[in-house]
Amino acid sequence: MANIITTLGPLGADQLGVVLPHEHVFVDLRTWDQPGYAQADPAAVVALMAPEIERARAVGVTAIVECSTVGVGRRADIDRAVSEATGFPLVVPTGIYREPWAPRWAHEASEDELFEWMLRELTDEISGTGVQAGWIKLSAGDDGLTPSETKILRAAARAAKATGSVIGSHTIKGAVVRDQLDILDDVGLAPNRFIWIHTQAEPDAGLHLEIARRGAWIEYDAIGSDDVDDAFFVEGIGRVLDAGLGGRLLLSQDRGTYDPAQPDGGRPRPYTYLSETFLPQLRASGLREAEIHGLMRTNPFEAFAR
User: Fold this and answer.
1) Whole-structure pTM over 0.85, yes or no?
2) Residue 9: what pLDDT?
C-alpha cells in the first residue's frame, strides 16, 4: 500500500485530504556559517506556528510538506515538536540545497557517502530526531548545475530509486530542469519521481508543458505571492489542463514560517490563501470539482507517496 511518510507515521490516501506540497514551518535562508544559523527555541516555534497549523486544518488542509532542507535551516526536531503539539502531519525532507548554501561537509562527501546518508534518513530517521524523511529536497543554480550539485543530484536519484521517494528541486530555469532529468535518466530514475519546484518562475510556458510531457511534476507554488497575481496562475493552470497534463500539476503557496533571522521568528504568512481565496477563483473560471480534487488531493498524494 502506498503511504506518505510523515512526522506522525505513514499515512494512506484514505487518511488524507488536501495536502500542501510546498510550504515552510521553519526556515533560515542565511548561509550555514552565519552566527545563530538555524537556532531557535522549539517552544517559541510552536507558539508562533501552531495557530497557523490550526488555521490550515480549519480550511481542510490535512498535511503540509516542509520544504526546508539541509542548507536552509532544516530542523527536523522542531518540525516534530510543532507536529506533536498540533497532532498535524508534516512531511520532512532529506537532501541538500544549492551553492552557496550547501555546507562544507556536502562538498567534501563522495556521491556514495551522500547516497548512504540520504538512504539512512529515508528508511530510518534524521539523526537523533525520531523523524523519518518523507522525500528529497534539492536545488540547482540558475546558470546550470555545478559539479557539487550534480554529485548531490546523482546521490539523490540513487536514494529515490532505492526507496520510491520523490525528489523536488528548487530550479528556476527550465533548461536546467532538462539537464536534471537527463541525469535522472542516466541513473535510471523515472521522471515521475521528480518535482520541478517554482515552475512559475520560468517565463517560457512551453517549457512547463514540455517537462510535464516528459512525466515530471510541475509545481506552481507561489500562489498568494505579492510578486505574481492570481490571474497568472489561473491562466497557467488552464493551459496545463487544456494540454491534458492536469495529472502532472501541483499547487502550493511557499508560505509560513518561523525565521530565526527575524525578531521573534518574524510574521508568518497563513497557509490558507489557496483554499480561501484562490480556489474560488478557479471555480469561477470554470474548473470542475473533480479537477480541483485532483489538483489538491490526488496529485500531491501520488507525488509524495511511496
Assistant:
1) yes
2) 98
The pLDDT value given to residue 110: 98
Cell digits of residue 2? 502506498
End-to-end Cα distance, the chain: 8
- The three cell numbers of residue 115 are 547516497
From the list 123, 21, 121, 9, the residue with the least C-alpha distance to 63 is: 21
Distance from chain centroid for Cα 178: 19
Strands 217-220 and 194-197 come out as: parallel
Of 271, 273, 256, 223, the closest CA to residue 29 belongs to 256
- H or E element, residue 233: helix 230-242
| CB-based burial, 244-279: b 16+ in 10 Å, e otherwise | ebbebbbbbbbbbbbbbbeeebeebbbbbbbbeebb
Residue 73 and residue 116 in contact, taking contact as beta carbons nearer than 8 Å:
no
Give per-residue pLDDT as tens, 187-221: 999 999 999 999 999 999 999 999 999 999 999 99
Buried residues in 35-50 as b, exposed as e (16+ CB within 10 A):
eebbebebeebbebbb
100: helix, strand or coil: coil
Please give the C-alpha separations between residue 275 and each of 42, 122, 216, 278, 292, in angstroms, as whole numbers: 28, 30, 25, 6, 11
The DSSP secondary-structure symbol of 294 reads I
Cell numbers describing residue 125: 530517521
8 Å CB contact between 63 and 296? no
Mean pLDDT for the chain overall: 98
Say which residues have a Cβ less than 8 Å from residue 99's Cβ, sequence separation at least 6. Answer: 141, 146, 148, 149
C-alpha span between 231 and 212 (Å, rounded): 21
Write out the three cell numbers for 97.
Answer: 540545497
User: Peptide bond before 35: cis, by omega within 30 degrees of 0?
Assistant: no
